[in-house]
């Protein structure tokens, strides 16, 4: 449970951005939530304060040794004018797994969701309403001790910032081509690939730029050991439908366990779609694309929900998938998940949680 | 070349720490050097200002996606009362290689060394004098754009901070035991292991804690692909003398190219010691330790220069090396390199550079 959150409201609220030009992660709400960790006090002093720069010693360990983890989730405006979160406890659990891998102190169960609800409560008029838009929520934790020895920091800062974001695809799903990266790798067994840590992202930017140059929207990462099995696409999990069966790479220690990935798997099982998580070689996939049995491929993640793949570029050749069209299953998954998120489809799975704390009254002492 | 450096001196100099209790990276000098990068202006506005916290937007990309590289080198007080740097241009070249790998903008040749010299010039009374002490210099570059999309930042900050540091070993070299890490890995071919980036350090803290628990001072990292070949020890390169021949792991894309490693190799070649850089399996090393042909082993790095290894713990067994004593070659390398650094041994290799700019006068307009 989160202890009492101190709230200091801004005296100069910002002008809200044009809801039709939100983009992603460019605008931030009026407030942020901060909480400190020290070895003596543990996590303490949760507070909501006006969005403002962080002040950190130049020797703060986050700048030098990379103890930094984050999460990403969204608050959705529902048809009835409410607001809800999608599976926030799975983000909270993954955050704790990330914290453990990076030798950082974990949060008590419930704290992350309550902190998010408290912050969304203060800035709820920032949740955009148009279809496809949402309020992106970014909790992150960084090492703050000012000391240059290579060891775990003794102090940390949790911050939550929020950004109203636009539709990922304007006017419906759009398949994109992806480039199989032949040289660089995202992560390896025994490394940090299964943690949502800053370390996993900067190393992929070079390959991402190469993909763009090759006319592709994303990198398809192969495993580091054999450079044979697919792992993730960009920073999303990836699924393939071959001959009516759906596959995704099995979690092997170097793949991030996506929240959307989990929801997709639950839907496939509920819908009695044949589904298997197993190693998938790039050879198998391009062969299936070439002989027409690769019926659909798509990435899954919080930003896009479902991102259809129109073709795979490998060894200089483009292997189109489903004629570059959105597959039936991709569309159904997208409609179902976004429908549940927006309260248009009944949430029979119990995936949604109010975005604004029902305990608001409790906190006020009622 | 570095353009004119603006200097703003502190009005409240700090009390200097007790020179006998410096430790490592705990105290910082009165000033720091900052320089900004923007897409429009490139690197600009180098300035020396009082040491103070950095102010960064909570959405600054360094906190989220890990674009952060650094270097570490030292200024040494010489016997004649001067001060010198050790091979700073190699740090500058490695910094540029790191920047390239992490999709960050490079520095012009000469700029890093000149920036360091300018800053040491301002804080030169912070260089400690006692044997084994020095002024540790930490240049680092971080992504500052406030935006949550996963792409390269459009703005960066270069900062250089300096810390007077104590002797790594009190009263001479002390061999330490090291633990072969069986599960976690530091880096992999195609990843970021050859770059000096924050990403490579936090992931190793868990293994480092496990080493400590096993009574070892450091982790001996194995390669990620086969978990068979040694790569680095802690955050140092590693050397072994077997039957009179010296070996170090060959640079394979996942090993950092250490400046001290390079100096050691040059000395070995100059001294006509048989030397080879090649893959070294842990099996070969513990066998050599068991049959007594592993005569010496040591780590190399800026902090310790030479760190002798007294024993290797692998699969629950400790393999002592050289009876836990400092080897002859280890001692000779340590004495030679530290002697050159302190101006006690003639620098026939041209490794040292004045720590305070001779161009100070030029800059002042003389």
UniProtKB/TrEMBL annotation, chains A, B:
Keyword Transferase attached: yes
SUPFAM superfamilies on file: D-aminoacid aminotransferase-like PLP-dependent enzymes
Pathway this chain belongs to: Amino-acid biosynthesis; L-isoleucine biosynthesis; L-isoleucine from 2-oxobutanoate: step 4/4; Amino-acid biosynthesis; L-leucine biosynthesis; L-leucine from 3-methyl-2-oxobutanoate: step 4/4; Amino-acid biosynthesis; L-valine biosynthesis; L-valine from pyruvate: step 4/4
CDD domains noted in UniProt: BCAT_beta_family (cd01557)
Cofactor section: pyridoxal 5'-phosphate
Keyword Transferase on entry: yes
Top-level taxon: Bacteria
Record-listed E.C. numbers: 2.6.1.42
Pfam families: Aminotran_4
Bias (Basic and acidic residues): 1-19
Gene3D superfamilies for this protein: 3.30.470.10, D-amino Acid Aminotransferase, subunit A, domain 2
Catalytic activity: L-leucine + 2-oxoglutarate = 4-methyl-2-oxopentanoate + L-glutamate; L-valine + 2-oxoglutarate = 3-methyl-2-oxobutanoate + L-glutamate; L-isoleucine + 2-oxoglutarate = (S)-3-methyl-2-oxopentanoate + L-glutamate
Molecular functions (GO terms): branched-chain-amino-acid transaminase activity
Keywords of this entry: Amino-acid biosynthesis, Aminotransferase, Branched-chain amino acid biosynthesis, Pyridoxal phosphate, Transferase
Chain segments carrying region Disordered: 1-21
NCBIfam families linked: ilvE_II, PRK13357.1
Family: Belongs to the class-IV pyridoxal-phosphate-dependent aminotransferase family.
UniProt xrefs under PANTHER family: BRANCHED-CHAIN-AMINO-ACID AMINOTRANSFERASE, SUBGROUP IIII AMINOTRANSFERASE
Name of the protein in question: Branched-chain-amino-acid aminotransferase
Originating species: Paenibacillus filicis
């Amino acid at each position: 449970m989160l202890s009492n959150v101190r709230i200091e409201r801004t005296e100069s609220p910002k002008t809200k951005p044009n809801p039709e030009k939100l983009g992603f992660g460019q605008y931030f709400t009026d407030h942020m939530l901060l909480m400190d960790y020290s070895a003596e006090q543990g996590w303490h002093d949760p507070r909501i304060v006006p969005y403002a720069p962080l002040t950190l010693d130049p020797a703060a360990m986050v700048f030098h040794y990379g103890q930094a983890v984050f999460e990403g989730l969204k608050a959705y405006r529902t048809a009835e004018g409410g607001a809800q979160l999608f599976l926030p406890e799975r983000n909270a659990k993954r955050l704790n797994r990330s914290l453990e891998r990076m030798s950082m102190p974990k949060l008590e169960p419930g704290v992350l969701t309550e902190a998010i609800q408290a912050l969304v409560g203060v800035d709820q008029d920032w949740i955009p309403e148009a279809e496809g838009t949402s309020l992106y929520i970014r909790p992150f934790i960084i090492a703050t001790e000012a000391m240059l020895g290579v060891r775990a920091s003794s102090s940390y800062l949790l911050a939550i910032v929020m950004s109203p974001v636009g539709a990922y695809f304007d006017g419906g799903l759009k398949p994109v081509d992806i480039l199989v990266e032949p040289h660089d790798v995202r992560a390896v067994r025994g490394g940090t690939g299964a943690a949502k840590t800053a370390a996993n992202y900067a190393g992929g930017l070079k390959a991402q730029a190469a993909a763009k140059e090759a006319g592709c929207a994303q990198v398809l990462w192969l495993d580091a050991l054999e450079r044979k099995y697919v792992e993730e696409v960009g920073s999303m999990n990836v699924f393939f439908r071959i001959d009516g069966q759906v596959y995704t790479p099995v979690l092997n220690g170097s793949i991030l366990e996506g929240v959307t990935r989990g929801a997709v798997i639950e839907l496939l099982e509920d819908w009695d779609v044949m589904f298997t998580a197993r190693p998938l070689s790039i050879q198998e996939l391009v062969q299936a694309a070439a002989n027409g049995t690769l019926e659909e491929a798509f990435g899954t993640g919080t930003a896009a929900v479902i991102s259809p793949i129109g073709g795979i570029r490998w060894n200089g050749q483009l292997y189109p998938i489903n004629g570059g069209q959105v597959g039936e299953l991709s569309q159904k998954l997208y409609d179902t998940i976004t429908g549940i998120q927006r309260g248009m489809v009944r949430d029979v799975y119990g995936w949604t949680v109010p975005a604004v704390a029902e305990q608001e009254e409790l906190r006020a002492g009622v």
